[in-house]
Amino acid sequence: MTDLPRRSLGSLLLAGGTAAALVAAPHRPAAAATRGETDADVVAAMARLRNLPGLAPRLLQDARAILVFPRIVSGGFIVGGQYGEGAALGADGATKGYYNIAGVSFGLLAGAQASGLAMFFMTDEALAALVRADGWQIGTGPSVVVLDQGAQMNITASTVLEPVYAVTFNQQGLMASLALEGTKITRITPDT
User: Fold this and answer.
1) pTM check: above 0.85
2) Angle at Cα 154 formed by Cα 64 and Cα 68, nearest 5°?
3) What is the chain written as a DSSP string?
4) In whole angstroms, what is the distance from residue 73 CA to residue 104 CA?
5) What's the pLDDT band for 126 if we cut at 50, 70, 90?
6) Tens digits of per-residue pLDDT, 128-168?
7) CB atoms < 10 A from the CB of 120, how many?
8) What is the residue range of 73's domain?
9) What is the Cα–Cα distance from 95 to 98, expressed in whole angstroms?
10) pLDDT digit string (tens) for 8-36?
11) What is the domain count for the chain?
12) Under 8 Å CB-to-CB from 184, ≥6 apart: which residues?
């Protein structure tokens, strides 16, 4: 390998790593959303979810809790990262806790996007795993099934078999998808 391609590859990896670090790094306290800001964003996200074409009413009706991240920012080049903040809503609609989601990924990726994510906890056991964990890494606890729009329309009372379903919404940007495998969800305490 010549020096030019090595330098180019090194520059690409450095740029990707920098982008991933900027996106995935936890916000500084001054930049973190307050409870009021997060609550307002979650209410708006839930309104968008309820109006999402094809979203199965069973998910909204039968979920023990819904973990809503109104905006997850993802970006990178070869190395990518993502970060967002949200709240868990109980079956009664009351906020049960605040969480952030962060992750780093490697591979053939380039671009940036923002999107929302709703995770429907269908069993008490899955919800307990989220609550008791000091940071839940997706892929190490209850299984999470990501539903595309076609699969969402086919959910019925007899087909809701998985502990957690994930639905993305409001995608904006140029990345192909939101990666969940290896992503960590951590409970946070935002300022009031």
Assistant:
1) no
2) 35
3) --HHHHHHHHHHHHHHHHHHHHHHSPPPTTTSPPHHHHHHHHHHHHHHHHT-TT--HHHHHH-SEEEEEEEEEEEEEEEEEEEEEEEEEETTS-EEEEEEEEEEEEEEEEEEEEEEEEEEE-SHHHHHHHHH-SSEETTSSS-EEE--HHHHHT--TTT--SSEEEEEEEEEES-S----TT-EEEEE----
4) 12
5) very high
6) 988 887 778 876 777 788 886 544 444 544 456 789 999 98
7) 29
8) 3-188
9) 8
10) 434 444 444 444 444 444 443 445 789 99
11) 1
12) 101, 102, 103, 135, 136, 137, 138
Integer-rounded Cα Rg, in Å, for the chain is 18
Distance (Å, whole) CA 102 – CA 126? 20
Separation in Å, CA 85 to CA 3, 39, 42, 99:
42, 10, 10, 6
Neighbours of 100 (CB within 10 A): 21
C-alpha distance from residue 32 to each of 40, 103, 120, 130, 180 (Å): 14, 17, 24, 22, 22
Paired with 169 in beta bridges are: 116
Query: Token digits for 30?
Result: 């001054």
Pairing mode, strands 95-121 and 65-90: antiparallel
